[in-house]
Design a protein that fits this description.
- 29% of the residues lie in helices and 24% in strands.
- The protein is α/β, with parallel strands linked by helices.
- It folds into two domains: 4-182, Glucose Oxidase, domain 1; 188-218.
- Strands 1, 2, 3, 5, 7, 9, 12 and 13 form an eight-stranded mixed beta sheet that branches.
- The mean pLDDT is 93.
- This is Putative 4-hydroxy-4-methyl-2-oxoglutarate aldolase.
- Mg(2+) binds at residue 118.
Length: 230
Amino acid sequence: MHDPLLDRLRNLETGQVSDVLDEAGLPNHALASALVPLAPGQRFAGRAACLRGERNVAGRAQASAAPADTFERVAKPGTVVVIEAGGFQGGALLGGFVALSLQRGGCVGLVTDGAIRDANEIRDLGFPCVVGAVTPVNGARRWRLSEVDVPVCLPGQSDGPVRVSPGDYILADGDGAVAIPAGVAEQIIADAEELQRIERRIGEEMRAGGSRTAVFKANPRFDHVRPARG
């Protein structure tokens, strides 16, 4: 089903959304800068499809607690797959074949605190990822999926782990990635759009010769931002 909020979110910058979330009283929203884009210039927006995994017993392959086709099941159009690896980076959670399958199912991106492999192949696919690490090591003997469609936690930039629930909105660009709770997404996106308009006006006035302090005083950036509800 088409989500018009995603169309609007794609036109925003993570910095604008982050500022509005801060002003709205939701400071714990930005993923840690240790989670890095796989390719420069990538940006994506989608609804979170959440997965969680756990370490295997050392040296022993274990069957996944989730069905073998879990990635294909969650890869619906407009989704961002968000995987909580629990800090595990000793092997890749997925590689090029899974990335291709996700992309083919309509998934628009991946966010994880874990590692992936086949980085060049995934870049060539044009499948954007924000990841904790890249490694050639296969994670199959070391890690397994354990839970699907549950809230997950990923490392945050400033206020502890960021909780992401299924259906939350994810925006990623060159500055990083932010999560917007679904219950306040329409309000946050609308207020970020107004901030975008204000900042465009500020840029125009400064390029016309206005001083930064005078232009900022004439164009308050956050007076319109409403406290988050819900």
